[in-house]
Please model this.
Amino acid sequence: METQIEKLQEVVRETETKTIKLYNPAATDHKLEHRVKSIELTENYTRIDFIYRSSKVYENGGWVTIEENSYITPIDSEVKYKLIKAYGIPYAPVKHYFKNQGEIFCYSLLFPALPKSTRRIDIIEKLAPGNYFNFFNVCFAEWMSIPIPADVARSNN
Model:
């Protein structure tokens, strides 16, 4: 007895979303306490990666947190793109406490997609007195499109 098996044709749908990842040359300056490492621009989102070095003012390095109402805004625009998700850093009032001074801490913030013509932005955690993670006039138009050597995987171990 022969069994007939109907084969279904596999359909592969390719969605072509253009992703641009730009690396900040200043991110390799280890003298900076807090810096933008890279910006990833897609049709669906904007991802910003940061590097933070814990404070030498506090014996244990202090703590970090991020405000849920953080946003980015293109320079010369009033539009605020509100934070969608934070990766690696807790939302206030929860805090990440460091164990040592000078500890390296990396985190990412996800925002809605920026207009394609955007070349400079402000990254605002909170405009108020205090120590907030605010970066003004971040010009990423001439950043590198190749990864910083430390970001390149060297092996699969």
User: Anything to note?
Assistant: The two ends are 51 Å apart (CA to CA).
